[in-house]
Amino acid sequence: MKEKLSVLLVGGGGREHAIATALKKSARLARLICAPGNAGIAQLCECFPVSATDIEGQVKLAKEQGVDLVFVAPDDPLVLGLCDRLREEGIAAFGPSAAAARIEGSKVFSKDLMKKYSIPTASYEVFDDVFAARAYLKARGEYPIVLKAEGLALGKGVLIPENEEEAMDALKELMEDKKFGSAGNRIVIEEFLTGPEVSVLAFCDGKNYVTMPAAQDHKRAFEGNLGPNTGGMGAFCRTPNYTEEIEQICHREIFAPTVRAMAQEGCPFTGVLYFGLMLTPKGPRVIEYNARFGDPETQAVLPLLESDFLEILLAVNEGRLDECDVRFSDKAAFCLVIASGGYPGAVEKGFPITGLDKAEETGATVYHAGTANKDGTVVTSGGRVLGVVTVRDTLAECRDASYAAASHIRFDKMRMRSDLLKDY
Ligand code: AMP
Ligand code: GLY
After folding, report:
1. Which bound ligand lies closest to the C-alpha atom of 198?
2. Average pLDDT over residues 111-129
3. pLDDT tens-digit profile of 371-382?
């Protein structure tokens, strides 16, 4: 690899703004471009209007721009095989092959992998027939229970009915009404687990892995952890729930066995592997894997990275992560998400956003998620709009600092949770 690299970042949310920020700090970066990007990323680098799922469009852009490395951040292009296509064309890519991305893209693949390699997870059954699923639920009769669509469903394909009536409705939604499209052709029905949830992200080069500090996100839409699940209304890093003892168990029973299992299955995992864990009274269990950086966890984790980000990405791609310096600060970080009214449902877009500079003058970093530039004004363009990130010595200081910074920001119908980090 050259000394200085030209990089294309694929994606355009808050996660990608945090990734772009980390890349810009690298001593090895020559030039950064992004597609499609957003109004915040456009302040850091040139953005191109190619959608993340336009696989051939992204390959063409990478070739035309002569980049040395493509960083594929979102799940859908990974599952669609963008990294494979780039490698076929002789272009280096950061991210797993489509075969390895099945660990996120197929619930059945990931559950069967865990079963085969004795990795602790909720017990489960797979169904592709709605009558069999209905009969199973009636015979089992234990609630709550968890129903998951087989494929990617924008993080929304998980239903947790509390009784038989709700379970029958949930089955109908998934398998008959096809609320999540073909993702609901097959479903997993699994045991309901309880306990705090933590997210551990790991750089992974196919055989070695290095974990990042554990994060936790706030999934529910409303105060008091009520309302529908969202992509995350906020995230914080260095969670007190993830003790050293739990960490040791996770390395032994979950992280190392998963990395080994993927290699043994012939699809070694390279990129960032995200372990969604539930710390149950019986020990940590895998709730889900993601084949990429999480959003909004990344906005709370990457600001703590002290080593050179691009150096780590190259070590991952060259299979020498074991020799690489991967260091994080021991401070705390918090990302407070500001969303559009109505999120996670349908939202109105195009409202001008004010106060961004004032918020940053307080010392916070504001990552853009759903924003666009309209005639020189930053306007809303999605459900999650901004992430207000602070790094401090303690989580309590982060909480106060992020809320103080966010108080300067205004747009029509804006919404954030007022109670984050009160209950961690
Ligand atoms: P997933 O998309 O798999 O992360 O699931 C979304 C959310 O559903 C998780 O973050 C959990 O809060 C919840 N969930 C998923 N699986 C289970 C389970 N087996 N038991 C309890 N809650 C679950
Ligand atoms: N915050 C969860 C995810 O990125 O899937």
Report:
1. 1
2. 95
3. 999 999 999 999
Please tell me the distance between residue 230's alpha carbon and the centre of ligand 2 in angstroms.
Answer: 9
Query: Residue 155 above 70 pLDDT?
Result: no
Q: Which atom of ligand 1 is nearest to the CA of 288?
A: 3
Q: Which atom of ligand 1 is nearest to the CA of 157?
A: 2
Band of the pLDDT at 158, cuts 50, 70, 90?
confident
From residue 323, how far is each of 29, 131, 305, 310, 312 by CA, in Å?
20, 53, 17, 14, 10
8-state DSSP, 89: T
Pocket of ligand 2 (CB under 6 A): 155, 217, 231-232, 290, 294-295, 297
Task: Calculate mean pLDDT across residues 120-128.
Answer: 94
Q: Count the Cβ atoms, other than its own, within 10 Å of residue 224.
A: 10
Return the structure tokens found at 239.
């969670």
Distance 287 CA to ligand 1 centre (A): 6
* Structural domains of the chain sorted by starting position, each given as residue range(s) with its CATH number in brackets: 5-95 (3.40.50.20), 124-190 (3.30.1490.20), 194-323 (3.30.470.20), 332-415 (3.90.600.10)
Whether the bond between 36 and the residue before it is cis, its omega within 30 degrees of 0, is yes
Is the pLDDT score of 355 beyond 80? Answer: yes
Rounded to two decimals, the pTM is 0.95
- Cβ atoms of 221 and 227 within 8 Å: the answer is yes
Residues in the chain, how many? 424
- Are the CB atoms for 250 and 200 separated by under 8 Å? yes
Q: What is the rounded average pLDDT of the residues 31-36?
A: 98
Mutate which of 146, 152, 290 for ligand 1 pocket (most atoms within 8 A of beta carbon): 146
For the Cβ of 229 lying below 6 angstroms from any atom of ligand 1, the answer is: yes
Cβ–ligand 1 distance for 123 under 6 Å, the answer no
- Relative to the alpha carbon of 156, which ligand is closest? 1
The angle that helices 14-24 and 309-317 make with each other, rounded to 10 degrees, is 100
CA 227 distance to own-chain centroid: 21
d(CA 262, CA 341): 41
